[in-house]
């Protein structure tokens, strides 16, 4: 097996013993895994030696929640809450599905940006209407295999009509618009589970670093039997059930409107809230919700940037951590964020909680943010035994950063530099499973220039067609705005933590 020895580096291991406290040492990598951590380590004569002087070695970052289906919509939208934004980024009136080459390219583009900015693992909940197709899922897996990234991948499922998943929708949407929304028969739970089992049989564990996860879109968008079947299969296969819960003010009133209880309580009562459950957002959770989440041992993907861009609110991260909920950081899609940089999310997460409560002793600290970006994200992906910290036996998914850059000059506290000063520009080397995928800022696995040239050539026509869909879906804009207005009016009177994390 080939060996790599990183000598005399500053190590930030994020393990239980050292956490975010740096120390000097060596790392020996063999067979894609960390073989030893210590000082004056020896390697075989044919080992690759990396000089670690003035360099920081840390675990690769984990993007706990993203959507590759948005990758071509960077810089396209602003000033819209989720329910309105969805009309344009995920149109109700859909056109032809994106062709498989563009599907591959949009996934590859997300992986390229992620790796260059230190993300070695991402959880991609992409949307690919109207059906679930193994060939198209395989195209996404192929993109990530070619890029060299580690990923949990799924195509989100929903089988409840959109208007039956939104409070007030049937009341406020004109009948002639409702009649336009014919999505055909909903997917039965059994059919989706068959699809998932086929994905597990053919794609799961591809390249040793790509996994299939199960992704019911949200509890209000799926039937009870769909949620229960998804959860049972997730437990059986040891993978996350990755879903969206309580992101917006509209969703804050959805549970009571449809089920007479919060969406978290609804998940619990269905038996779908457990260690396997990873919840994107959790902005509008109550004290009781948080207690249920902690008892269940579930995880949250905290999307600090997208939650601000879409005006959703601020997740109560301190209370979630206190309850024992594992927290990772997610970018969300690049349409609701505009980058795939976890460094951006780290900085916003480090800042936004400081304005959401007066008790400064409970503000979120840099070492906690780093834990979310690494081992917390690994836990949310159910990969904490493989990645998230530098430990003997774990995969060699790591970053090497130059400590002589402006971001680290003068050098004070490394954790605070990483959260508040660094933006990824100090990254020199990125490894996934011991393989160098980025060296001196350049991807080693693909011809980046050729891929970007092909995207520039092919995507304008796709965006022009999408612009026509935007015009068609603008007919629903006022309805979604009214749903948001009514929900906001009701939500602000509810006893929720959102926007007050103190």
UniProtKB/TrEMBL annotation:
Gene3D superfamilies in the record: Metal-dependent hydrolases, Urease, subunit C, domain 1
Domain of life: Bacteria
Keywords for this protein: Hydrolase
UniProt domain Amidohydrolase-related: residue ranges: 56-437
InterPro entries tied to this protein: Amidohydro-rel, Metal-dep_hydrolase_composite, Metal_Hydrolase, MTA/SAH_deaminase
Pfam families: Amidohydro_1
Family according to the record: Belongs to the metallo-dependent hydrolases superfamily. ATZ/TRZ family.
Protein's name according to its UniProt entry: 5-methylthioadenosine/S-adenosylhomocysteine deaminase
Organism name: Shinella yambaruensis
Organism taxonomic ancestry: Bacteria, Pseudomonadati, Pseudomonadota, Alphaproteobacteria, Hyphomicrobiales
Gene name per UniProt: mtaD
């Amino acid at each position: 097996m080939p060996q790599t020895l990183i000598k005399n580096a500053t190590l930030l291991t994020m393990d239980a013993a050292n956490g975010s406290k740096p120390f000097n040492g060596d790392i020996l990598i063999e067979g894609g895994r960390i073989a030893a951590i210590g000082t004056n380590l020896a390697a075989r004569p044919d080992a690759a030696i990396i000089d670690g002087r003035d360099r920081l070695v840390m675990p690769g970052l984990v993007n706990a929640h993203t959507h590759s289906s948005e990758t071509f919509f960077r810089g396209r939208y602003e000033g819209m809450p989720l329910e309105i934004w969805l009309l344009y980024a995920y149109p109700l009136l859909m056109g032809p599905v994106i062709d498989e080459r563009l599907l591959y390219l949009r996934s590859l583009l997300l992986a390229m940006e992620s790796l260059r900015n230190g993300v070695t693992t991402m959880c991609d909940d992409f949307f690919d209407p109207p059906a679930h197709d193994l060939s198209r899922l395989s195209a996404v897996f192929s993109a990530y295999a070619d890029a060299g990234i580690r990923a949990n991948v799924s195509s989100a499922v929903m089988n409840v009509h959109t208007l039956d998943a939104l409070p007030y929708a049937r009341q406020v949407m004109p009948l002639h618009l409702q009649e336009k929304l014919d999505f055909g028969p909903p997917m039965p739970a059994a059919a989706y589970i068959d699809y998932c089992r086929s994905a597990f049989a053919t794609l799961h564990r591809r390249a040793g670093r790509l996994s299939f996860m199960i992704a019911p879109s949200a509890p209000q968008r799926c039937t009870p039997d769909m949620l229960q079947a998804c959860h049972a299969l997730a437990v059986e296969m040891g993978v996350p059930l990755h879903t969206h819960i309580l992101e917006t003010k509209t969703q804050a009133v959805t549970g009571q409107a449809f089920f007479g209880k919060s969406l978290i309580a609804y998940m619990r009562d269905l038996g779908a809230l457990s260690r396997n459950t990873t919840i994107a957002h959790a902005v509008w959770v109550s004290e009781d919700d948080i207690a249920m989440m902690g008892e269940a041992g579930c995880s949250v993907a905290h999307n600090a940037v997208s939650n601000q861009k879409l005006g959703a609110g601020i997740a109560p991260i301190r209370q979630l951590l206190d309850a024992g909920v594992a927290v990772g950081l997610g970018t969300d899609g690049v349409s609701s964020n505009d980058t795939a940089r976890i460094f951006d999310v780290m900085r916003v997460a480090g800042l936004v909680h400081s304005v959401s409560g007066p008790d400064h002793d409970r503000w979120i600290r840099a070492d906690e943010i780093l834990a979310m970006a690494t081992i917390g994200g690994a836990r949310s992906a159910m990969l904490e035994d493989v990645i998230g910290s530098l430990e003997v036996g774990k995969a060699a998914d790591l970053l090497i950063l130059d400590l002589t850059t402006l971001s680290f000059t003068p050098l004070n506290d490394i954790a605070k530099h990483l959260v508040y000063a660094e933006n990824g520009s100090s990254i020199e080397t990125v490894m996934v499973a011991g393989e160098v995928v980025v060296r001196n800022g350049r991807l080693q696995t693909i011809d980046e220039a050729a891929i970007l040239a092909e995207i520039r050539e092919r995507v304008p026509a796709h965006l022009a067609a999408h612009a026509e869909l935007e015009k068609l879906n603008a007919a629903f804009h006022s309805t979604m705005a009214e749903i948001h207005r009514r929900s906001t009016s009701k939500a602000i009177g509810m006893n929720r933590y959102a926007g007050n994390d103190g």
